[in-house]
Amino acid sequence: MAGIEFLKGHGTQNDFVLLPDPDASLELTPQRVAALCDRRRGLGADGVLRVVRSAALDAGPSGSEAEWFMDYRNADGSIAEMCGNGVRVFTRYLVEAGLQIGPEFAVGTRAGDRSVRVHDDLSVTVHMGPATITGTSVALVDGRQVSGVAVDVGNPHLVSVLDDDVNELDLRDAPRYDTEVFPEGVNLEFVNVLGSKELRMRVYERGVGETRACGTGTVAAVAAALHLRGTDTGESVVEIPGGRVSVTVGKGVSTLTGPAEFVAKGELDRAWWEALG
Length: 277
Hints:
Blueprint: E1 4-11, E2 14-20, H1 30-37, E3 47-53, E4 68-74, H2 84-96, E5 104-107, E6 114-118, E7 124-127, E8 132-141, E9 144-152, E10 156-161, E11 176-177, E12 187-195, E13 198-205, E14 209-211, H3 215-228, E15 234-240, E16 243-250, E17 253-258, E18 261-268, H4 270-276
Parallel strand pairs: 2-3, 10-12, 13-15
Antiparallel strand pairs: 1-2, 1-18, 3-4, 5-6, 6-7, 7-17, 8-9, 8-11, 9-10, 12-13, 13-14, 15-16, 16-17
């Protein structure tokens, strides 16, 4: 019984299991995703990227016109709309596997099609769509309540800009948030402003926990910091535990540029996969 091909990669240490599945033949159940992402009983990852043709998904979950669709799942098996770091890894795979001819093309996501560009150093720029300020709310983190700016980047975020060092925050326990404002959950970013064009960020991702990076979160962080300065356009480098990325935010558009790395490839045992159900 043939195994199931996989690759393991990361974007600024936000890591993923990538499953090539062009014809949508794999049944990607929440149980299988959670097992794959478990760092003891599986390969370990912050999420799963399934590489599938949009035409194989009943015209694509978002009506995608792109040839390839990024079917992204969180580590707990839940479905997510978008992942900026995941798109970069997904994009590099398409080019290196010969499935797309670079340097520019579109990738389908549940948040809509995203234009991408692969650079000579194999870093990737992703057009992330608009970063929309939707209001304010509060989070309870490390025993205290902090205010935040709500930002929609195709998925929901709450960005709290803090005066004290975010590296000192205890994020072992899940921060709490207003479930009436975010009934589908929310990604929580905690940010220090280091300069006019530099931020430091930590993130607690919906369905995952604290991760080393969050692509949409970095865009949300820059949009929120600009908003608090009274503007809606600008650019910034964002320092995250997994590295550094560059973000631009404009009127109705944003971009994210950063690395994409592969570290391993192989086959999943099909009997193990089938037994998970």
